[in-house]
Amino acid sequence: MKITDVRTTVVGTPWRELTFVEVHTDDGRVGLGEARMLNKTDTLLACIAELSQRHLIGSDPFDLERLAWKVSWEEYGRVGEVTATTLAMLDMACHDLMGQELGVPIHRLLGGTMRERIPAYANGWYQGGRDPEQVAELAAAVVKRGYRGLKIDPFGAATAELSAAELRRAVDIVGAVRDTVGPDVSIMVEMHGRFTGATAARVARELTPLRPEWLEEPVPPHDVDGLRLVRAATEVPIATGERVHTVPEFRELISRGLVDIIQADLTHIGGFTGLRKLAGWAEAYNLLLAPHNVCGPVGTAANLHFATSTPGLKVLEHFNDFADPWVAGLVTDAPMVDAADGAFAVPTAPGLGLRLDHDACSEHPRTHVHFNLVREGWERRDTLAGARS
Question: Mandelate racemase/muconate lactonizing enzyme C-terminal domain: from which residue to which, for each copy (predicted)?
Answer without folding.
Answer: 132-237
